[in-house]
Amino acid sequence: MSTEALAPFRGRQPFAMVSDLVVPGALDLDADDRLWVPQAPDVAFRPLLLSPSQGYFVNLLRVRRSGVLSRHRHAGPVHSFTLRGRWHYLEHDWEATEGGYAFEPPGETHTLVVPDGVAEMITLFHVTGSYVYVDPDGRATGYEDVFTKIENARRHYAEIGLGAERVEEFLR
Ligand SMILES: [Fe+2]
């Protein structure tokens, strides 16, 4: 191969480009429990990327109980990759299983269930926009978005002594 073919890009990266983000061991699901932010009893998330400028976030969601987790409506698209355990939506007959990918369209309302017998579910979710917690008739009861994720992580990291600023490593 010629030296030109092997040469790194010699130009400048564009002004205002944000820096890249690398999370070593992102799939080491049992590492450093301090990074997992409690969200509800037996439910926690570990941020990988939190984007206030683009309004999306990428996180690992870990659930250590079975039953209905939440019913919610998505304003934006969701990409999920199930890493451990399994889960499903009451509104669909498919089941998300380990190693499987699923796309959730903007506008959909669904009810997430972790079935009995699953001790732990961990799924990577890439969530754009907000999702609104709703009752069975669609009435809003609460919401999540990248900003609630950032606030929760800041509070948790401060409480356990990592420092609220620890969240900044995930911001892009
Ligand atoms: Fe969802």
UniProtKB/TrEMBL annotation:
Pfam families from the entry? Cupin_7
- Which CDD domains does this UniProt record tie to the protein? cupin_DAD
Superkingdom of the source species: Bacteria
Q: Which UniProt keywords apply?
A: Dioxygenase, Oxidoreductase
Chain ranges of the ChrR-like cupin domain: 30-129
Extract the InterPro entries matched here.
ChrR-like_cupin_dom, RmlC-like_jellyroll, RmlC_Cupin_sf
The answer on whether this UniProt entry bears the keyword Oxidoreductase reads: yes
- GO molecular function terms noted in the UniProt entry: dioxygenase activity
- Asked if the keyword Transmembrane belongs to this entry, the reply reads no
Q: What protein name does the entry list?
A: 2,4'-dihydroxyacetophenone dioxygenase family protein
The record lists the organism as Pseudonocardia alaniniphila
